[in-house]
Amino acid sequence: MPVKLNSTGGGSVTLTTPSTATDYTATFPAATGNVVTTGSSAVVTPAMLSTGAPSWDSSGVLSFNSGYGSVATAYGCRAWVNFNGTGTVAIRASGNVSSITDNSAGSYTVNLTNALPDAKASAVASPAVAEFPSAWGGDLINSRVISTTQVEVLNLASGVARDIAIVNVAVFR
Protein backbone atom coordinates (compact mmCIF):
# COMPACT_ATOMS: atom_id res chain seq x y z
CA MET A 1 0.00 0.00 0.00
CA PRO A 2 1.56 3.33 -1.02
CA VAL A 3 1.97 6.00 1.66
CA LYS A 4 1.67 9.66 0.68
CA LEU A 5 2.95 11.87 3.48
CA ASN A 6 1.81 15.27 2.19
CA SER A 7 0.85 16.98 -1.04
CA THR A 8 4.49 17.38 -2.15
CA GLY A 9 5.45 13.83 -1.19
CA GLY A 10 7.69 14.99 1.69
CA GLY A 11 7.56 13.98 5.32
CA SER A 12 8.83 11.07 7.32
CA VAL A 13 7.97 7.51 8.22
CA THR A 14 9.13 5.82 11.42
CA LEU A 15 9.74 2.08 11.43
CA THR A 16 9.91 0.25 14.75
CA THR A 17 11.94 -2.84 15.50
CA PRO A 18 9.91 -5.96 14.64
CA SER A 19 8.98 -8.31 17.44
CA THR A 20 10.25 -11.30 15.44
CA ALA A 21 13.31 -11.89 13.26
CA THR A 22 11.54 -11.34 9.94
CA ASP A 23 12.92 -9.70 6.81
CA TYR A 24 11.26 -6.48 5.72
CA THR A 25 11.66 -4.71 2.39
CA ALA A 26 11.30 -0.98 1.82
CA THR A 27 10.87 0.14 -1.79
CA PHE A 28 11.52 3.77 -2.67
CA PRO A 29 10.37 5.56 -5.82
CA ALA A 30 12.80 5.90 -8.72
CA ALA A 31 13.44 9.60 -8.10
CA THR A 32 16.40 11.60 -6.94
CA GLY A 33 16.83 12.22 -3.25
CA ASN A 34 18.37 10.78 -0.12
CA VAL A 35 17.42 8.18 2.42
CA VAL A 36 18.25 9.66 5.81
CA THR A 37 18.42 7.65 9.01
CA THR A 38 17.89 9.13 12.43
CA GLY A 39 17.78 7.78 15.95
CA SER A 40 20.45 6.35 18.19
CA SER A 41 23.10 5.75 15.51
CA ALA A 42 21.98 7.58 12.33
CA VAL A 43 24.33 5.24 10.42
CA VAL A 44 23.51 2.34 8.12
CA THR A 45 26.01 -0.35 9.13
CA PRO A 46 27.03 -3.50 7.23
CA ALA A 47 25.16 -5.56 9.83
CA MET A 48 21.96 -3.72 8.84
CA LEU A 49 22.48 -4.70 5.21
CA SER A 50 24.34 -8.01 5.04
CA THR A 51 27.65 -9.51 6.12
CA GLY A 52 30.53 -7.87 4.26
CA ALA A 53 28.43 -5.04 2.85
CA PRO A 54 30.28 -1.82 1.98
CA SER A 55 31.09 0.49 4.87
CA TRP A 56 32.86 3.80 5.41
CA ASP A 57 34.98 4.76 8.40
CA SER A 58 35.07 8.25 9.93
CA SER A 59 37.79 9.28 7.40
CA GLY A 60 35.62 8.25 4.45
CA VAL A 61 37.64 5.11 3.64
CA LEU A 62 35.49 2.53 1.83
CA SER A 63 35.87 -1.12 2.82
CA PHE A 64 34.07 -4.25 1.65
CA ASN A 65 34.42 -7.99 1.12
CA SER A 66 34.64 -8.58 -2.62
CA GLY A 67 34.77 -12.34 -2.28
CA TYR A 68 38.31 -12.73 -0.93
CA GLY A 69 37.24 -13.77 2.56
CA SER A 70 37.69 -10.57 4.55
CA VAL A 71 36.63 -6.94 4.60
CA ALA A 72 39.45 -4.67 3.42
CA THR A 73 40.03 -1.15 2.10
CA ALA A 74 38.96 -0.65 -1.52
CA TYR A 75 41.50 1.04 -3.79
CA GLY A 76 39.67 2.47 -6.75
CA CYS A 77 40.64 3.34 -10.25
CA ARG A 78 40.97 7.16 -10.19
CA ALA A 79 41.00 7.55 -13.98
CA TRP A 80 40.89 5.37 -17.10
CA VAL A 81 40.91 5.91 -20.84
CA ASN A 82 40.82 4.03 -24.13
CA PHE A 83 42.12 6.22 -26.96
CA ASN A 84 43.27 6.18 -30.56
CA GLY A 85 47.00 6.97 -30.59
CA THR A 86 47.44 7.29 -34.38
CA GLY A 87 46.76 10.30 -36.58
CA THR A 88 44.66 12.76 -34.61
CA VAL A 89 44.48 11.25 -31.12
CA ALA A 90 40.94 10.77 -29.89
CA ILE A 91 39.36 9.42 -26.73
CA ARG A 92 37.01 6.49 -27.36
CA ALA A 93 35.83 6.15 -23.76
CA SER A 94 37.10 7.42 -20.42
CA GLY A 95 36.50 8.28 -16.81
CA ASN A 96 38.08 11.36 -15.16
CA VAL A 97 40.12 12.11 -18.31
CA SER A 98 39.65 15.51 -19.95
CA SER A 99 41.95 15.12 -22.96
CA ILE A 100 44.98 13.42 -24.52
CA THR A 101 48.00 15.38 -25.73
CA ASP A 102 49.98 13.90 -28.64
CA ASN A 103 53.56 14.88 -27.72
CA SER A 104 55.36 13.10 -30.57
CA ALA A 105 55.49 9.62 -32.12
CA GLY A 106 54.42 7.13 -29.46
CA SER A 107 54.40 9.75 -26.68
CA TYR A 108 51.16 10.91 -25.09
CA THR A 109 50.03 12.83 -22.03
CA VAL A 110 46.76 11.83 -20.37
CA ASN A 111 45.18 14.91 -18.75
CA LEU A 112 42.93 14.28 -15.75
CA THR A 113 39.67 16.12 -15.13
CA ASN A 114 39.95 15.95 -11.31
CA ALA A 115 43.36 16.03 -9.65
CA LEU A 116 44.75 13.11 -7.66
CA PRO A 117 45.44 13.73 -3.94
CA ASP A 118 49.18 13.50 -4.72
CA ALA A 119 51.50 12.21 -7.45
CA LYS A 120 52.12 8.87 -5.71
CA ALA A 121 49.61 6.99 -7.84
CA SER A 122 50.29 4.06 -10.15
CA ALA A 123 49.56 4.23 -13.88
CA VAL A 124 49.22 1.17 -16.08
CA ALA A 125 49.12 1.30 -19.88
CA SER A 126 48.58 -1.41 -22.45
CA PRO A 127 47.71 -1.85 -26.11
CA ALA A 128 44.27 -3.30 -26.88
CA VAL A 129 43.87 -6.79 -28.32
CA ALA A 130 43.96 -5.52 -31.92
CA GLU A 131 47.52 -4.31 -31.32
CA PHE A 132 48.87 -7.56 -29.85
CA PRO A 133 50.11 -9.14 -33.10
CA SER A 134 52.46 -6.22 -33.77
CA ALA A 135 53.07 -5.48 -30.08
CA TRP A 136 54.61 -8.92 -29.54
CA GLY A 137 57.31 -7.85 -31.97
CA GLY A 138 59.03 -5.76 -29.30
CA ASP A 139 56.57 -3.02 -28.27
CA LEU A 140 56.89 -1.81 -24.72
CA ILE A 141 54.40 0.69 -23.29
CA ASN A 142 55.65 2.71 -20.34
CA SER A 143 53.50 4.92 -18.14
CA ARG A 144 54.14 7.15 -15.18
CA VAL A 145 52.30 9.72 -13.12
CA ILE A 146 54.10 13.02 -13.70
CA SER A 147 51.79 15.25 -11.62
CA THR A 148 48.44 15.19 -9.85
CA THR A 149 46.76 16.00 -13.18
CA GLN A 150 48.88 14.24 -15.83
CA VAL A 151 50.09 10.77 -16.79
CA GLU A 152 52.79 10.24 -19.41
CA VAL A 153 52.60 7.25 -21.78
CA LEU A 154 55.40 6.14 -24.14
CA ASN A 155 55.23 3.28 -26.63
CA LEU A 156 58.52 1.85 -27.91
CA ALA A 157 59.00 -0.76 -30.62
CA SER A 158 62.53 -2.20 -30.48
CA GLY A 159 63.63 1.00 -28.74
CA VAL A 160 62.00 3.36 -31.27
CA ALA A 161 58.93 5.43 -30.29
CA ARG A 162 55.92 4.67 -32.47
CA ASP A 163 52.22 5.50 -32.49
CA ILE A 164 49.81 2.75 -31.54
CA ALA A 165 46.17 2.48 -32.64
CA ILE A 166 44.51 1.45 -29.38
CA VAL A 167 45.92 2.54 -26.02
CA ASN A 168 44.40 1.78 -22.61
CA VAL A 169 45.51 3.59 -19.44
CA ALA A 170 44.32 3.19 -15.83
CA VAL A 171 45.41 5.23 -12.83
CA PHE A 172 45.14 3.82 -9.28
CA ARG A 173 45.63 5.48 -5.89
Oligomer type:
single chain
What percent of residues are in strands? 35-45%
* Coarse shape: elongated
Order of helices and strands: HEEEEEEEEHEEEE
Provide the residue-averaged pLDDT: 78
Proportion in helices: under 10%
Structure at a glance:
This protein is mostly beta strands and 173 residues long. It folds into two domains: 1-74, no CATH class; 77-172, no CATH class.
Layout: helices, strands, pairs:
Elements: H1 46-49, E1 55-56, E2 62-64, E3 72-73, E4 77-84, E5 90-95, E6 97-104, E7 107-112, E8 122-127, H2 132-135, E9 139-145, E10 150-157, E11 160-161, E12 167-172
Antiparallel strand pairs: 1-2, 2-3, 4-5, 4-12, 6-7, 7-10, 8-12, 9-10, 10-11
Describe this structure in words.
- The chain has 173 residues and is mainly β.
- It has two domains: 1-74, no CATH class; 77-172, no CATH class.
- It contains two helices and twelve strands.
- Strands 6, 7, 9, 10 and 11 form a five-stranded antiparallel beta sheet that branches. The protein has a four-stranded antiparallel beta sheet with strand order 5-4-12-8, with no helix packed on it. A three-stranded antiparallel beta sheet has the order 1-2-3, with no helix packed on it.
- A hairpin with a 4-residue loop joins strand 9 and strand 10.
- The longest helix is centred in the N-terminal third of the chain and has 4 residues, at 46-49.
- The radius of gyration is 24 Å and the shape is elongated.
- The model has no long low-confidence stretch (mean pLDDT 78).
Task: Name some characteristics of this structure.
single chain; four-stranded antiparallel sheet; mainly beta; 12 strands; 2 helices; 173 residues; elongated; 5% helix; 37% strand; five-stranded antiparallel sheet
